[in-house]
Every structure is written in C-alpha cells, then in structure tokens.
Q: What sequence folds into this?
C-alpha cells in the first residue's frame, strides 16, 4: 500500500497549505486522545519547547490555539494594545491591510507606512515615523504572501530599539517561520505570530504565537479589560504555562490531532536531519532555482530587489495578455496547484509556494515537477492566445 503522502492528489505549490510528510499525515489518522491525559500533556509540552527553538527564543511564551493565522492578529490587538493607543503598521501588501483592520477593530489608532510596490518600507521612513510619535507597537509582515516581499526584521528591530525602546516589535511570520531565519531573542522581537500550514508543515488550523517576557509584562500591566473572550491571554496564559510545566489545564478543548501532527512536524524540523539551519539554506537554494527558471521563462518577479524576495514563495507577473485564470487551470490539469494573485492586480500574477517537505525532501521530486509543469503550461497558455 502506498504511504499517505504518495496517495494520488494534486501537488500543493501554493503559499500554504503545503505538502505534508507521512509522519504528519499519520498523526492525523489516529483516534483522538484526551486533552488532559499524561500522554497528550507531554506532547503539548514538547510542542511549546520546540516552537521556541524554531523562532530562536529561550523564554518566549508560546500560545498554541485552534484558529488560523489571522487569529494571531486578534491576540495582538486584544491583549497588547489598549483602545486609543498608537500602532505603526508597515505595509508591504494585502496582509498589512488585514492586520491594520484587526487592530482598529479593537480600538487601536493605526498609522501606516506603505512600501513602494515590490519593495519593503525604507528604513529611513521608519526612523522618521518613530521620532515623531511614541508608538505602543510596530507591526512588520516578515513575508507578505501577496507580493513575496521579504522585510528585514533584524534591521527594523535595531532601529526601533535605538529610537523607541519601549515600542513592542510584532512580526507577522505566518509565511516566514521555518522558511526564513528568525532570531527572536537576539533581534529583540516581542511577538512572532504564525500558523501551522505554511513553513511549519502541518495542516491548517493552529494559530501559533510566541510572546517575549517583555510583551507578557506589558499585557500584565494593562489598565483596561481585554475585550475578547476567546482571544484573551487571561484565559490562555495559565493554560500554556500549565502545559509547559507538564500539567493538564482546560480552557477550550485543544485540537488534539492537529497538535499531534504539529508535534510530528516540529520533531522533524528541530531534531531530525536536516537541521533547522540546513533547512533554511535549502529554502534559499530552491527559491533561487525557481526564480532563475522563472527568469528564463521571461517572468518578472513582484519583488524588485533580490535581497528582499521571500525564500519560501515566488510571486511572478504573467506575460501581457495572459491572466492567472489562463494558466492556473492548465497547471491544475497537470496535477499542480499554484495560486493566483491577491488584491488589486490579482489576475496579473501567480504565486508559487515552496516550503517544507517539498523543499527539504528532494526524493519527492516536487520542485522538478513545479518547474517543468510551469514551463509546459505557460507555453500552452501562450500558444492558445496566438
Ligand atoms: C497566510 C497569512 C496570514 C493569514 O493566515 P490564515 O491562516 O489564512 O488566517 C496572515 N499573514 C500572512 C503573512 C500570511 O501569509
């Protein structure tokens, strides 16, 4: 019998969800266990420990909660920002809009710095903005999945620490954790929020957020009540602390099978071969390969500066006269699923995800399949227009 990952299915080459390993798939197909059983508590504790490793923190507090990546925005907006406080949102695409809207929903006063199309926000603009106003928090989309633009979190964090040391540094790492380097402690980042289904190699369904001890202190000192029930760290912090100490606790049943799948993936990422560093190197290598092939095909990237292009995905403009709707069905018919654009010019470009096992396990041949199918489908789409 074929292993679960080899069962006939279309190859997912989108920026999440991604292809999963057999170990992860097998964890999903087991009878659920009790969320307060010693067996599950130990698994949850390990997930907390391994999550810390992936983002480079010793004492950051992980919150692993059922929800999608978006729920991380709610956690930040509900717990770390009080109504009327100022937040600076660095905008490099569609996901900056979402974070901004979420912050406003909870009463934050949001200023935005919008990047030029294809670039990250210039550092000198961030510097100036921080000198004019005292912001409670600044948000950075590490990789904006709508554009593939990669922001330099370390450089931005250095500036914030120098000019406005009390400002909380919040990183939306949904499309970067485990595919881009993140050193939370060394860089002085206060929150990394992410999700299970992109670089972390598990199915969708878990919101994963890591808060620095500084952020936890800021939360503990808030003056106004938290205006969310499910997102409140008042509820979740005791639960996460208990599991972290190998003790059961209850507030909302955890998605036990998803946690087991996440555990299986984290185990591969943090303690199997290749190492986390080697994985990051492989993401770079594969990314360069895909971007080189795209260039040969005459496809221009959305990011205009190679130093600020994501390593876990590629966003490519299509040639004039060809829309995403012309090429995506051709790719799908050949068994490869890529994504169209997001936002205003969504039919003008496509997005290719290359994260997780497709990148790390060369024996799967996924990257070859992605490259050859793109080539053939583009030719077809061009021929059909002639
Ligand atoms: C995917 C993504 C999100 C949203 O995550 P969901 O799991 O779809 O809610 C947020 N930010 C970024 C940068 C993303 O790539």
A:
């Amino acid at each position: 019998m074929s292993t679960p990952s080899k069962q006939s299915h279309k190859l997912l080459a989108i920026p999440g969800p991604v292809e999963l390993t057999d170990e992860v798939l097998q964890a999903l197909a087991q009878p659920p266990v009790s969320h307060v059983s010693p067996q599950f508590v130990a698994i949850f504790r390990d997930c907390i420990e391994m999550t810390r490793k992936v983002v480079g923190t010793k004492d950051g507090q992980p919150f692993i909660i059922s929800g999608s990546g978006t729920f991380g925005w709610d956690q930040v907006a509900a717990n770390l920002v009080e109504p009327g406080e100022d937040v600076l949102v660095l905008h490099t695409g569609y996901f900056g809009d979402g974070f901004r809207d979420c912050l406003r929903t909870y009463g934050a006063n949001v200023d935005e710095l919008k990047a030029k199309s294809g670039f990250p926000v210039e550092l000198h603009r961030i510097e100036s903005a921080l000198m004019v106003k005292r912001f409670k928090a600044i948000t950075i989309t590490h990789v904006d999945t709508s554009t593939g633009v990669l922001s330099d979190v370390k450089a931005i964090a250095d500036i914030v620490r120098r000019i406005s040391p009390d400002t909380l540094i919040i990183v939306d790492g949904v499309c970067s954790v485990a595919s881009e380097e993140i050193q939370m402690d060394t860089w002085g980042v206060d929150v990394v929020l992410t999700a299970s289904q992109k670089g972390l190699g598990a199915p969708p369904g878990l919101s994963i957020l890591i808060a620095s001890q500084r952020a936890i202190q800021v939360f503990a000192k808030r003056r106004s009540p938290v205006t969310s029930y499910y997102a409140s760290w008042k509820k979740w912090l005791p639960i996460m602390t208990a599991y972290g100490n190998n003790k059961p606790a209850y507030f909302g049943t955890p998605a036990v099978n998803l946690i087991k799948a996440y555990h299986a993936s984290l185990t591969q990422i943090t303690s199997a071969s290749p190492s986390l560093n080697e994985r990051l190197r492989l993401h770079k290598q594969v990314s360069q390969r895909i971007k080189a092939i795209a260039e040969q095909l005459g496809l221009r990237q959305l990011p205009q500066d190679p130093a600020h292009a994501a390593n876990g995905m590629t966003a490519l403009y299509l040639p004039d006269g060809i829309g995403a709707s012309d090429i995506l069905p051709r790719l799908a018919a050949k068994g490869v699923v890529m994504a169209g654009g997001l936002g205003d010019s969504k039919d003008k470009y496509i997005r290719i995800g290359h994260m997780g096992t497709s990148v790390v396990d060369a024996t799967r041949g996924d990257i070859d399949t992605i490259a050859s199918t793109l080539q053939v489908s583009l030719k077809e789409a061009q021929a059909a227009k002639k």
In short: The mean pLDDT is 97. The first strand starts at residue 11 and ends at 12. The pocket of pyridoxal-5'-phosphate is lined by residues 16, 68-70, 95, 141, 144-145, 172, 174-175, 195 (CB under 6 Å).
